[in-house]
Amino acid sequence: ETKIRKIDKNQIDKNIIEEAGMLLREGKLVAFPTETVYGLGADALQEEAARKTYEAKGRPSDNPLIVHIADYEDLKKIAVNIPPETDMLAAHFWPGPLTMIFQKSEEVPYGTTGGLDTVAVRMPVDPIARALIRAAGGFVSAPSANTSGRPSPTTARHVEEDLSGKIDMILDGGPVDIGLESTILDMTVSPPMILRPGAVTAEMFKKVIGPVDIDQTLLSENSAQPPKAPGMKYRHYAPKAKLVIVEGDLREEILAIRQLAYEADRKEHPVGIIATNETLPFYNHGIVKNIGTRENEKTIARNLYGVLREFDEEDVDTIYSESFAVQGIGTAIMNRLEKAAGHVRIPASDIVKLQKY
Ligand code: TXA
Ligand code: MG
């Protein structure tokens, strides 16, 4: 039986936090909101709690967990050989959507790090998350609170869909703010290397500590090397339908998707379309979902996983998505979209060329 507790982040109910913190201290599992996605919390220093986490998610146990802290001083208890740039990065981006990787201390069990000698650490800004971490004793491991292979949860409802009956409690703090998982920065190499793009971007790091590297395996589908973050090698999420990213300039993308949707309708196989506020009026065939506004790509990040979940409820076997510029948060949006699409892309111009004028 999974207890569900509604909690208001502007007026946190201490009794609920105490109850949830107690469960974590007992080695139990509590899902909670963070600014990125909902996390599945466990005491990061109890090996057995990590085992339960993997079991509830159906996740391979070689895939390490992120340890969440609420106070910067606590970093020293779980990490060693912390490089000097860390202070500057923390000053700018913690608390917030940044995870940094360090060599682990002996306090951290290998169950939590998937057998690695390094540990991923994040200090979230969400006040519910911070209160819970403190109530639990300071160190909470939390992967995204989805079943392995589904989109990360951005509402408590998504967590319930995947994990109800398998975990002890869900704290429902409403929809999350960012909607994509944190940026992962490997601090054990110099310069540091981005292993997963997120809301904190390479441009932002550059302003604080100078240029950082980017794990090159993230950029191409058939790299010979596995990505450096073990979790990035799994095709995170395969939608029920085939997802295809249509690439070109926006005008061409609209024309191509219009045509593909029209043809599919004629064959009575309606397709799904991932559109934006600006492009919505151009589509009159297919099942069209609005992912947000191009004026503010944060809205697109926020809605992406929810829209993908919605399409799993629809009777479509192909979904066409517009593409987004790979800059700012767009880098993370395209990274997640491409993973969901298994890197299937088609040039819009190929489709439009076929059209007779
Ligand atoms: O935004 C987030 O980071 C969310 C919220 C809940 O904080 N958490 C999250 O956790 O996305 P998860 O487990 O779904 O993704 C963690 C990623 C995986 O790709 C994992 O392989 C990588 O972090 N990772 C964790 N520890 C690592 C380590 N020591 N070295 C390299 N990659 C690591
Ligand atoms: Mg995940």
UniProtKB/TrEMBL annotation:
GO terms for biological process: regulation of translational fidelity; tRNA processing. One of its GO terms (cellular component) is cytoplasm. It catalyses: L-threonine + hydrogencarbonate + ATP = L-threonylcarbamoyladenylate + diphosphate + H2O. It is an enzyme of class 2 (transferase). Keywords: ATP-binding, Cytoplasm, Nucleotide-binding, Nucleotidyltransferase, Transferase, tRNA processing. It is found in: Cytoplasm. One of its GO terms (molecular function) is ATP binding. Its EC number is 2.7.7.87. Its main location: cytoplasm. Residues 14-200 form the YrdC-like domain. Belongs to the SUA5 family. This is L-threonylcarbamoyladenylate synthase. It comes from Mediterraneibacter catenae. The lineage of its organism: Bacteria, Bacillati, Bacillota, Clostridia, Lachnospirales.
